Amino acid sequence: MQARGYHDYPGSGPLSLPELMPAAANLMEYLAVARQDEVLVLTEYTVPEPVVSVIAVAARAAGARTSVLAVEPFSPGGFDRDTPSPVVVGAWEQATVVISCAWWAEVHTQPLFFSRLGELGARLAALHQTATPGAMATGGRLPPAIFYEVKQRVLDLVVDAQELRVKTAQGTDIVMRDLRFDTDNGPITEPGRWSPFPYGGVNWYPGDTQGVVVLEETTVTGVPSDPTSLRVEANQVVDIAGGREVRELERFSPSGYYVRHAFTGLNPKVRIKNAPQFEREKHAGAFYWGLDSLEAAGRGKPGFAHLDCQFDFPTITVDGEPLVDDGYLLVLDHPGVRATAARFGDPDRLLLPNPYLW
Fold first, then answer.
1. Ordered domains of the chain (ranges, CATH)
2. Strands (DSSP E) along the chain, which ranges?
3. Is the pLDDT confidence value at 211 over 90?
4. pTM of the model
């Protein structure tokens, strides 16, 4: 069993199901689950039972035939190359929809890496670190249409950008150029497509990254005990400076690191406080940075030393124009976003980036 996982976070009793049902219904809408689907709910042993139950109930209510498979926890970053079991892959191949509650990103493993998902065929919603009652009752409750509108407004601003710059109060200052964005938006209807849940943000792949990153939290080190910084040139980490965490990072990927991708969260109702890293990355205005081992450089290959870096309150500019100001996603004030939110309630409450105020 992994030392870090769902068992670190409190669960809740079966009477919590009514509070989780809105998120489960949103999840079915997000995956366009229908009567003809074969749904596989993939869960680790340690996932809270009400979360698995409410997802299975929602899938059955949508008319789909639903199976639940419980497995041992996955490894951080796919570091153990023999996981998952062939049983998991076989079940996945027979499903049309997979809802994965794995704590660590199973798509970083060899048989389930994202470049293979098209071959496996299922539509995937990945609840990386978010198969918890807390995540379902907050970010999972945001109506999908609001997220789609927020994402489209951000894509309108960034897809033709020449550069994105990310700065933090801790000292991070990086510029990313030669950008390629994932532009999929809307329900997951095509076989082989996947996306996180709760719905998260906009993802991009920089061809060039320059600057200095001061780490705030990573999947390998947690929150560093000493100031730890990475210097990046031409999309490659050329120096790591700091205290005890330097050795941890060097041992995790002895061949070094390159910048695989970056991500800006778009969901105002995802938690920041008291939430694991892969939940916080989806919070509107947060920034996430993914590094991979130089051993497997190339975006079609598994990142067997994938290092996820989280920044809660960045300032991000697009070609010099502000996109995020000290962790606040400015698109939340866009008239089109507010009009969409007004269809579901008070936009001042729905778009307020506080998960406890609706």
1. 6-137 (3.40.50), 142-350 (no CATH)
2. 38-44, 65-71, 97-100, 123-126, 163-167, 173-181, 194-196, 201-214, 229-233, 236-241, 257-265, 287-293, 307-311, 315-318, 321-325, 328-329
3. yes
4. 0.93
